[in-house]
C-alpha cells in the first residue's frame, strides 16, 4: 500500500476528512508534510486513524485514546496497563448504566402516574418536574393537588 491523499486515507480508515483534520488538531496524529503539493498519508498513519476510531467506538475518550497510543508506542509497556485501562472503562460504563436505569425508573414512575388525557393543568408529569427539589424519582403524581380539584 502506498501513501494516500487525505480523502483516500479517510475512506480507507472509515472516517471523514474533517475527522482526520480534527485528530491532527488534537495531536492524535501528526499532520504529514506536503510532498508534491499536497499532504500524503502513510499506511501506518491510516492504521493509527483506524485505531483511534475503534477506541472511540468502544467508549474511550480522546484523552484515554492518547494514553493507549502512548502505551502502544512504548516497547517497555505491559499489556497489564492496557487491561487496567479497559477495566476502568468497564467500571465507568457500569456506573453510567446504573444512572440510566435510575433515570428510566423515574421516567416510568411519572409516566405510570399520568392519566394520558386532559388539559396540561392536570399533567402529572409536568407537575412532577416542577416538584424537582424532592430529588429524582420522587413523584407525588398520585397525591391530590393542593387547591386544585382533580
From TrEMBL:
Residue ranges of every copy of the HTH merR-type domain listed in the record: 5-71
Keyword Coiled coil attached: yes
UniProt cross-references to Pfam families, sorted A to Z: MerR (PF00376), MerR-DNA-bind (PF09278)
SUPFAM superfamilies according to UniProt: Putative DNA-binding domain
Highest taxon, organism lineage: Bacteria
Keyword 4Fe-4S included in the entry's annotation: no
Annotated keywords: Coiled coil, DNA-binding, Transcription, Transcription regulation
PROSITE patterns xref list: HTH_MERR_2 (PS50937)
Coiled coil: 83-110
InterPro entries in the cross-refs: DNA-bd_dom_put_sf, MerR-type_HTH_dom, MerR_fam, Tscrpt_reg_MerR_DNA-bd
GO molecular function (one): DNA binding
Protein name: Heavy metal-responsive transcriptional regulator
Lineage, top ranks: Bacteria, Pseudomonadati, Pseudomonadota, Alphaproteobacteria, Hyphomicrobiales
Amino acid at each position: 500500500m502506498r501513501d494516500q491523499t487525505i480523502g483516500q486515507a479517510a475512506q480507507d480508515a472509515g472516517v471523514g476528512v474533517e475527522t482526520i483534520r480534527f485528530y491532527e488538531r488534537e495531536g492524535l496524529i501528526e499532520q504529514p508534510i506536503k510532498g508534491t503539493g499536497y499532504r500524503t498519508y502513510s499506511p501506518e498513519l491510516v492504521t493509527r486513524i483506524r485505531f483511534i476510531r475503534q477506541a472511540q467506538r468502544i467508549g474511550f475518550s480522546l484523552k484515554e485514546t492518547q494514553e493507549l497510543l502512548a502505551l502502544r508506542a512504548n516497547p517497555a509497556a505491559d499489556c497489564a496497563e492496557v487491561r487496567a485501562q479497559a477495566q476502568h472503562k468497564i467500571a465507568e460504563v457500569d456506573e453510567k448504566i446504573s444512572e440510566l436505569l435510575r433515570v428510566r425508573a423515574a421516567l416510568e414512575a411519572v409516566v405510570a402516574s399520568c392519566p394520558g388525557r386532559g388539559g396540561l393543568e392536570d399533567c402529572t408529569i409536568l407537575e412532577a418536574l416542577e416538584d424537582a427539589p424532592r430529588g429524582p424519582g420522587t413523584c407525588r403524581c398520585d397525591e391530590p393537588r393542593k387547591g386544585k380539584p382533580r
